[in-house]
Write a structure and sequence with these properties.
CATH class of the largest domain: Alpha Beta
Strand order of the largest sheet: 2-9-8-7-6-3-4-5
Number of domains: 2
CATH superfamily of the largest domain: Type I PLP-dependent aspartate aminotransferase-like (Major domain)
CATH topology of the largest domain: Aspartate Aminotransferase, domain 2
Radius of gyration: 21 Å
Distance between the termini: 44 Å
Shape: globular
Strand content: 15-25%
């Protein structure tokens, strides 16, 4: 047979969260080594359990869920999501403005395919959740990364964003709360982003999957609530807040002025129809989940697992010379910085060296499209004693590590 190579469309596309470092971890595990995994935000593998109300919603509807649903989703799910959007202050959302998906990831890909032509530009934060960059690149777009400022608690740099808008720019992506930094954006920053979108006629894509994972009484503002006249697509789901990543329950809500985006929405509808529908059993979890948000508060208040585990990571990281970090205000990630003494020129190599020496699996910062090889992400989902041991091993490794 002829040799078959990967499609040229995949040139420049990567997803480091499940890339070469994880492949090396799998190889070491196959040899019998025990790996402490701080690499992926997957609560189910760390003994988090979904609330019973959500599970009961699935159990009661397994027979109705045997059939395809409307490509946008079942009515009860879309009604509950529209009501949730109203609680977040997003004006004018009806069930017809809601699309369910097999996780937010699928919906991001659908939107990028529906929007971008070769040469079109889209502004995405650095650091970012790398699926955004990968999906945009695969769809033919040119990703332009605007910087988030570590010295300002990882808030977006508005002037950098402004400088990078061009006649080819179609949209701005906002990831709030942010993965990988754990930052929560203030209302003033969000209003400035809305102004830029309004002035330049841009779409806002708002990834708000962590809007219910908030620490110390912090409050989340949905950017669409500040932009009733600007077309926004707001993404959310149950994977993180209700601990059911494997159920693949995501959604997006469209709001604002829809007149200029008629063609884009035709593309979204076509692509949604082509994949028939999202996972129907999971859709039946949406209504009971959004009617029971107590699980989120239980995890993030003092004594809750997420709150205490983030605290353990912060405490242990503070003991490591040459390492600084911004405390997370939301989500369950920390994005520490390595100073110049370690001479890190290849942070993927750093991650693999750490893995081989100490059996701790992290994701290197350039995997999140950060501009320098001097950061890495820690997932704070393992129980506190495991996190303390893992961060302690990182400290031991760094004590003697130089590239």
């Amino acid at each position: 047979m002829a040799t078959f190579n990967k499609s040229a469309k995949l040139q420049g596309v990567s997803y480091a969260v499940r890339g070469p470092v994880l492949e090396e971890a799998n190889r070491l595990e196959a040899q019998g080594q025990k790996i402490l995994k701080l690499n992926i935000g997957n609560p189910g593998v760390f003994r988090f359990e979904a609330p019973e109300t959500l599970l009961e919603g699935l159990r009661q509807n397994l027979i109705p869920a045997e059939a395809y649903s409307d490509s946008r989703g079942i009515a009860s799910a879309r009604e509950a999501i529209a009501a949730y959007a109203a609680k977040k202050g997003i004006a004018g959302v009806t069930p017809n403005d809601v699309y369910t998906g097999n996780g937010v990831s699928e919906l991001i890909s659908i939107c990028m395919q529906a929007l971008l032509d070769p040469g079109d530009e889209i502004l995405i934060p650095a650091p970012d959740y790398p699926l955004w960059t990968a999906a945009s690149t695969l769809s033919g777009g040119r990703v332009v990364h605007y910087l988030c400022d570590e010295t300002s608690d990882w808030q977006p740099d508005i002037e950098d964003m402004r400088r990078k808008i061009s006649p080819k720019t179609k949209a701005i992506v906002v990831i709030n709360p942010n993965n990988p930094t754990g930052a929560l954006y203030g209302k003033e920053i969000l209003e400035q982003i809305v102004s830029l979108a309004r002035e330049n006629g841009l779409i806002i894509f708002a990834d708000e999957i962590y809007d219910r994972i908030l620490m110390d009484g912090a409050e989340h503002t949905s950017i669409a609530s500040l932009a009733p006249d600007v077309f926004c697509v707001t993404f959310n789901g149950l994977s993180k807040s209700h601990l059911v990543c494997g159920y693949r329950v995501g959604w997006m809500v469209v709001s604002g002025d829809k007149a200029p985006v008629k063609g884009f929405m035709e593309g979204v509808t076509m692509l949604s129809s082509m994949r028939l529908c999202a996972n129907v059993p999971g859709q039946y979890a949406v209504k009971p989940a959004l009617e029971d948000l107590a699980v989120c508060d239980e995890m993030t208040r003092p004594g809750g697992r997420i709150y205490e585990q983030l605290g353990a990571v912060n405490e242990e990281l503070s003991k490591i010379d040459g390492l600084t970090f911004v405390k997370a205000r939301a989500a369950f990630y920390v994005f520490p910085k390595l100073d110049g003494r370690f001479n890190i020129t290849d942070d993927e190599r750093f991650a693999i060296d750490l893995l081989r020496a100490k059996q701790v699996l992290i994701v290197h910062g350039t995997g999140f499209n950060w501009i320098e090889p001097n950061h890495f992400r820690i997932v704070c989902l393992p129980e506190a004693p495991v996190l303390r041991e893992a961060v302690g091993r990182i400290g031991e490794f760094l004590a003697g590590y130089r590239q």
